[in-house]
Amino acid sequence: MTKPIFEGSGVAIVTPFTDSGVDYERLEQLVDFHINNGTDAIIICGSTGEASTMPDDEHLATIKCAIDAAAKRVPVIAGTGSNDTRHGVHLTREAVKLGADAVLVVTPYYNKCTPEGLFRHYGEYAKNSDAPIILYNVPSRTNVNISPDSLVRLAEYENIVAIKECNFGQVPEIYSKLGDRYTLYSGEDGLAVPMVSMGAKGVISVVANILPAHMSKMIHSYLDGDVKTARDMQVEIIPLVKALFCEVNPIPIKEAMNILGMNVGPCRLPLCEMSAANHKYLEDVLAKYDFSFINK
Asked: How far apart are CA 283 and CA 104, in angstroms?
């Protein structure tokens, strides 16, 4: 296995929006907040960052903003996936030119490609990028699964180095067939410690947007051999995880951040504000946790 791009907690950072576009100043502040509070990597323009609503110029400007703000203090991983292979390859090339440390590439959505199409899709990314590539397997969003057999085929590309895995049930088979060929990252906050117990090196986290230190300590505790602390910290956040996914991500996490005074603006249509009942539920759950560090 190549050296992991990061170990611990990488935040799937939200994109702060105003009515006129991206709030780049606020994004810079969020990057500083994360680095100062222990986040191990910044994942910019992923699903949580609402990249699918962003035209290319804005998408790339947002990636550049995060890279500049991080200033090499932690890795910045740019979301460049698309259901149009040529488009995704273009975004990848441009993100690498801007200085992204790696790219995160989701499976093609809507097209519902075959395993052969998936192999060729990722092959084009691999052949057109010198940067490390993290595959992103999230069948609940894309209706396409990267099977262990597909991962075996994709292992021929040396720069495909990792996978953000949301299909926990196939992780044992991945290790059975591939060992440590890929670095695994959990794509599920509620299963982060179980995934690390199976050999993953970290989590790409939504919860880290509001609990960065907790998520990083939780993962590093397990990696350092303190299983009880990691387990207890995982159990502690389960009510919060449920609240933050009571509606489609990133609606609840943005609502939570605004409730906590982090001022990240609204989601873009077709995502909208939470229902009144779920907003109240989220407020009640947030009140059970200590967020006093946010405004210090």
From this structure: 32
Q: Could you list the active site residues? A: 136, 164
For 266, what's the count of Cα atoms within 13 Å in the CB-facing half-sphere?
Answer: 11
Whether 282 shows a pLDDT value over 70: the answer reads yes
Q: Which two tokens stand for residue 183?
A: 């670095």
Distance between CA atoms of residues 241 and 222, nearest Å: 19
Phi/psi for 75 (5° steps) reads -65, 145
- Rounded mean pLDDT, 43-47: 97
Give the confidence band of 130 by pLDDT, cuts at 50, 70, 90: confident
Cα 75 to Cα 124: distance, rounded to the nearest angstrom: 24
Give 295's pLDDT tier (boundaries 50, 70, 90).
Answer: confident
Residues contacting residue 109 through CB under 8 Å, at least 6 positions apart: 83, 141, 142, 143, 144
The third-level CATH classification (topology) of the domain covering 8-224 is TIM Barrel (3.20.20)
Query: DSSP for 139-180?
Result: HHHHS----HHHHHHHTT-TTEEEEEE--GGGHHHHHHHHTT
**pTM for the full predicted model:** 0.95
* Cα 163 from Cα 209, distance rounded (Å): 21
Percent with pLDDT over 70 in the chain: 99
